[in-house]
Amino acid sequence: MAPRGLSADEKRIKLLEIFHETKDFYQLKELEKLGPKLKGIVSQSVKEVLQSLVDDGLVQGDKIVFWSFPSHQGAVIQGRVDNAKEMKISQQTQLLEIQQSIEREKSTRIESESRTAAIAKLQYMKKELAKLDEELTAYGACDPVKLEETRRAITLGKEAAMRWTENYSALLPHFLRHSMASIEDVRKYLEIDEEYEDIY
Fold it and tell me: CA-to-CA distance for 143 and 136, rounded, in angstroms?
């Protein structure tokens, strides 16, 4: 039976052991030689394992030299634990405040016939509102808001058409006076057919 290779976690532990046992600084090439020799880590995977340790803050380094000391690893882990404890306390406090708020609201809402009737009426009204919204959506084009929007769009469109017609009518004689083009050529160029008329 062939020997089993190291898992990713085992490689991380073993590479970290090299740093902690020697308490020294290493270049990547040195680690690629020491990994297989001391810990049985395949040299091709050393770079990837090292990068994962750097990403997790367990190994420090610049682009050339890498290092990790046991005290630093302890400080990193302790920092994570402290952060987790602070978050837990904050969330427990928030949960307690929410629970107290719920209890306060419950105490002000004493069950009575009038309250039960009001809640039932509210539920009924919500259902009615949903039905009416559905009905209004079904009428769609007859919706007063949509009709008003359409009227406004028509008015704006008409105003724009009048403005462009007026601009065309004012500029055409001026253009014809200053150029040697005929009115037919100008209309053809602007794609204005014979049926064109001013909108006033």
Answer: 7
